Amino acid sequence: MAPPATKSLGELDGGARPHVMFIPSAGMGHLLPFFRVIAALAAHDVVDISVVTVLPTVSAAEADHFASLFAALPRVSRVDFHLLPFDASSEFPGHDPFLLRWEALRRSAHLFRPLIAGAAGPRVSAVVTDVTLTSHVIPIAKELGVQCHVLFVSCATMLSLAAYTPVHLDKKNKGEHGPGVGVGVGVGDVDIPGVRRIPQSYLPQPLLDLNKLFTKQFIDNGREIINADGFLVNTFDALEPVALAALRDGKVVAGFPPVYAIGPLRSKEEEATTGSPPVAWLDEQPARSVVYVAFGNRNAVSLEQIREIAAGLEASGCRFLWVLKTTTVDRDDTAELTDDVLGEGFLERVQGRGLVTKAWVDQEAVLKHASVGLFLSHSGWNSVTEAAAAGVPLLAWPRGGDHRVNATVVVSGGVGVWMEQWSWDGEDWLVTGEEIGKKVKEVMSDAAVRARATRTGEEAAKAVAEGGTSYRSMQKFISSLKAHCSP
């Protein structure tokens, strides 16, 4: 059956013009989807856009990308936001700096009220907030009569987990202790209606302790998201048909808001990558011969594990491009690529067939390069969708957070394979270089894995093409903005 006739994005430009305020959080994994949605809307010129910018940023990469966004899109308004004082180091010693930034934003969130009400410019007709801020931003938007949508930066399966976890905890708590809010009850396996059972071992590690800062944030946000006006999710129907159907049909939580699957999101601006050392090096390699290795912008592995990865890449015999991180925050990453980090003589032995860099790399450009044949990744959701769009098989090695949930989609969606038994953050054992090398070599030569990834790439291209499922979802979102915009 042919899809229903819809207007093009350009034809939607009639009547009152919505003013959409984007409220992103911290961490490149959260910011990149915001930047890409903003660029997509700005390119069609159907809404006015402002972006709340929290300064200073946590990482240098964040600062660079904000600067690039406003330089490339001069019509997008910048609204600087100043956090209230918060002694995070004494109140939450040793916590992840990105989680602390989320908490600082939540504590300052009441300051969004005058911004949304128009104190800094034209009245806002809709807000698009990061999911980490929903428990505070949604009530403010509702009080002001403003639409509030959530840009969910992980997969639809993870969205179903976020929505259902408070219900799951309440059921457990009521059964064990009478009515309550889940305090003191272990999470256990979560059987999400209509989606799948998520074993406790797949959950973000902080959720195993209900007293953790992250867990309290997660549960608060999960309770509030039912009151959003809609969800933008960086996925596509062919990748997560089961989870998307369960959310849209109210199987996960009755009366769940509309879910707009608009992925895979892509950068609209072309970054200057031609001639950069990684791309120039890739240009010299045979087709599908290079293993690209990267574990995200905020995921560092131990020095001992780094040496095992190095040994594994060497043992695989494959060419490789490895983007290496040794700290969570890039500004703190001062370690040199020496024998102390990579192992004695490693760089000399792999010279010519391997390139190791600590510089920021345009991952989309790398994955689209003809020489790349495999992506060894932490399975952060941006990385998963970029691999899916490029049709490059992904070898998933989850490191923490939502990565194991994402890895279930890597397998079910045909993006790649998951080494479920490999360690992740907090586990005190190493994956050996011998095992890494063997698996890399095996997946690189697996024609069936490559064929599935290629088909997923074709489905991704169909989704974002004119008339595709993600294209139509973006149209519906824009129509919703305009329908609720006062003249």
Structural overview:
With 487 residues, the protein is α/β, with parallel strands linked by helices. The chain folds into 2 domains: 262 residues, Glycogen Phosphorylase B (Rossmann fold), CATH 3.40.50.2000; 186 residues, Glycogen Phosphorylase B (Rossmann fold, 3-Layer(aba) Sandwich), CATH 3.40.50. The chain has 19 helices and 15 strands. The strands form 3 sheets. Strands 3-2-1-4-5-8-9 form a 7-stranded parallel beta sheet, sandwiched between helices. It has a 6-stranded parallel beta sheet with strand order 12-11-10-13-14-15, with helices on both faces. A two-stranded antiparallel ribbon has the order 6-7. α7 packs across α8, α11 crosses α17 and α15 crosses α18. The longest helix is centred in the middle third of the chain and has 22 residues. The radius of gyration is 22 Å and the shape is globular. The N terminus is likely disordered. Pfam families: UDPGT. One of its GO terms (molecular function) is UDP-glucosyltransferase activity. It is an enzyme of class 2 (transferase).
